[in-house]
Write a structure and sequence with these properties.
There is one protein chain. By secondary structure, the chain is an alpha/beta fold. It is about 60% helix and about 5% strand. The protein is built from 21 helices and seven strands. It has helices spanning about 1-20, 30-55, 60-80, 95-110, 130-140, 145-170, 175-190, 195-200, 205-215, 225-245, 245-270, 275-305, 335-350, 355-375, 390-415, 420-445, 445-455, 475-485, 500-505, 525-535, 540-550; strands at about 495, 510, 555-565, 565-575, 580-590, 600-605, 605-610. Strands 1, 2, 3, 4, 5, 6 and 7 form a seven-stranded mixed sheet that branches. Helix 4 (about 95-110) packs across helix 5, helix 4 packs across helix 6 and helix 7 packs antiparallel against helix 15 (about 390-415). The relative contact order is 0.10.
Length: about 625
């Protein structure tokens, strides 16, 4: 795994640097980068095919292994890196969800402490693992956090794919491991890559579930072994805990379901005492995962002693249409739908004879149970965000589909007396299907790629060469704040509705983008109410007194928009269970409130920067 990580990281770095030295046209206004992406995909798939051939022939195993690592990491790099080659932004730019993710990476580029992305003097609520590693890399390389986001997202996914390949190769035949990894990596890139910090877990989930089942359900002469698999499963759950809480919850749920099934089977075969072994293994997994989770969870848990949690506006207050029905991708009229259908048939047909089918099948069942629980939770005023498990379902069924395709091909070959023409036809169909799906990935990601070109980056540039948005003035806003308040940016608290500013510069904010991304210790609703009260002050003295009486550190700087005789902030309120779940409203501060020597107001483009002295 260590070797695969190094190889994948080098491949991603070399590829991304090579893409960046050429002045490419924007993806949304030219087909050049799409064409070159296809060329790169075919080349990497060909390299994977060579590795499969070498592994099946038993020739040059080290060359085959290296070719497979380079092939799978190169596939990720070219599929994401080439379409984004002419922009410094990652998929979805710095809009909506990607805004707070970029803000988090910017925060952890500025500091190695597990600080909250927005609020001063609070520990991070969101697991910081992926962002902390990226932030430390950016700091080491002297890059801004926002600029590091794209190469780090692509590189980390390339590394995760290579690690998944190594894990698969320890669980199944080498050539089959390459094919399974290629399929699940392509599906992950297509359906999970916009959320990079979760995608690195998605691509690992199928082999980890196979590993977990091997550690929990021991039969025959191997009954007492499998503790290595138990440790490996615990390590993955710990990694998930430091990266993405939702996938920790799902993976822990699936592993617990496996343990209960294993215990039930053991009791049926050997009596009630036999349940002790799988349940003991489950406890060991939980202990390992819990200890690793404390690396990023401990500061937040300790803060609970002195802070109270917000009562509403949590991250689980979201129910899009896709979260209100069960996902059934096996009935979609697409290549992925066909692969999922084949995987479904294989899971059912091999459920009693294949441990792989059992483990992947339990994972699929866990997705559907989680989805039903999420829908049931709506009656209690919340959800379990089951719609975010759709990529997980796709990779599980996709992996099963690969095994199903291999089995079906083997049966046909047996029926045809190993006819070489049948074998050649199966290989051709599989290869063409891989190319067809791969080259469709940029089309599937086109909306996210387009936003990466139309958003204004931290340099004040739109990569599609069109006029930049208001974010082009952020650098001047930053200069004005530093002129008024010299020193580290992290020493200043800024109240602004243009929270994208915090994605590029590591100031602390007084209020977050929405309650769904806000730290529950920050009391989002109470802060919003305080802002509204401040705007109703009748004099500068009253405003300053109200700010000083607040239970939180007051803003040092306001970044407003201007409208007639008032400065405005456009804020957000949680209106779940409605969809959309956010309502925008405007708070107006009379300009007279800041007509005082204790404030300095400066116009910067569409913004007004008000600094308190």
């Amino acid at each position: 795994m260590a070797s695969a990580v190094v190889v994948a990281a080098v491949v991603a770095a070399v590829g991304l640097v090579a893409f960046s030295v050429v002045d490419w046209p924007a993806f949304n206004s030219s087909n050049v980068t799409r064409a070159l992406t296809t060329v790169g995909q075919v080349a990497t798939l060909a390299l994977l095919a060579v590795s499969v051939w070498l592994l099946r022939a038993g020739r040059a195993p080290l060359v085959a292994k290296l070719a497979s690592w380079v092939g799978v990491s190169g596939f990720v790099t070219v599929t994401l890196g080439m379409p984004l080659a002419a922009t410094k932004l990652y998929l979805h730019g710095v809009s909506v969800d990607q805004e707070f993710r970029t803000e988090f990476l910017t925060r952890l580029t500025d500091t190695a402490r597990l600080d909250d992305m927005t609020y001063v003097d609070l520990p991070s609520f969101y697991p910081a693992g992926w962002f902390w590693i990226g932030g430390r890399l950016a700091n080491l390389l002297g890059m801004d956090g926002w600029e590091m986001f794209k190469p780090y997202a692509i590189g980390s996914l390339a590394v995760a794919a290579a690690v998944a390949l190594v894990l698969w190769s320890k669980l199944i035949r080498g050539d089959l491991a390459v094919v399974a990894t290629a399929a699940t990596t392509a599906i992950t890139v297509a359906f999970a890559s916009p959320e990079a910090y979760s995608a690195v877990l998605v691509v690992l989930l199928p082999p980890v579930l196979v590993l977990a089942w091997g550690g929990l359900h021991r039969v025959g002469p191997t009954r007492g072994g499998g503790w290595g698999a138990v440790v490996g499963t615990g390590l993955f759950l710990g990694l998930a805990a430091t990266f993405y809480t939702l996938y920790l919850g799902y993976a822990a749920f699936a592993v617990t379901l496996m343990a209960l099934i294993a215990a039930g089977v053991a009791v049926r075969a050997n009596g009630i005492r036999a349940a002790r072994d799988p349940l003991l293994r489950l406890v060991a997994i939980a202990v390992i995962a819990g200890l690793i989770a404390l690396i990023v969870w401990a500061p937040f848990l300790l803060a609970l002693r002195t802070h109270t949690l917000a009562g509403s506006g949590t991250a689980t207050h979201y129910l899009p249409e896709s979260g209100s029905t069960l996902p059934l991708p096996m009935f979609d009229a697409s290549l992925v739908g066909l692969l999922c259908l084949l995987g479904t048939v294989w899971l059912v047909g091999r459920a009693w004879s294949s441990r792989r089918a059992q483990s992947l099948g339990i994972g699929v069942i866990a997705v559907y149970l989680w989805s039903l629980l999420s829908m049931a939770f709506t009656a209690a005023g919340s959800t379990l965000l089951s719609f975010r498990l759709e990529p997980v379902l796709l990779v599980l069924l996709g992996a099963a589909g690969v095994f199903g395709f291999v089995d079906v091909t083997r049966w046909i070959l047996l029926a045809s007396s190993d006819n070489p023409r049948i074998k050649a036809t199966a290989v051709a169909v599989g290869a063409l299907g891989a190319v067809a799906f791969s080259q469709s990935i940029p089309h599937h990601l086109a909306p996210e790629i387009t936003i990466a070109y139309t958003d204004t980056d931290g340099d004040g540039v739109r990569a599609d060469q069109r006029p930049a948005g208001a974010a082009a003035y952020y650098a001047q806003v930053d200069d004005e704040i530093l002129a008024q308040r010299p020193g580290p940016r992290s020493g200043t608290v800024v109240l602004t509705a243009d929270t994208g500013f915090l994605s590029f510069y590591p100031y602390f904010g007084f209020q977050g983008l929405t309650s769904h991304y806000a730290n529950p210790l920050a009391q989002f609703d109470e802060r919003a109410a305080a802002i509204a009260r401040w705007a109703e002050s009748d004099s500068p003295d009253a405003l300053i007194a109200a700010m000083d009486e607040a239970p939180w550190r007051a803003p040092d700087v306001f970044v407003f928009r201007s409208a007639d005789d008032a400065y405005t902030l456009r804020l957000a309120a949680d209106v779940y269970p409605n969809d959309p779940n956010v309502k925008r409203y405007t708070v107006e501060f009379p300009k007279a409130l800041f007509d005082d020597p204790r404030f300095t107001a400066t116009e910067v483009g569409p913004f007004t920067v008000v600094t308190r002295h």
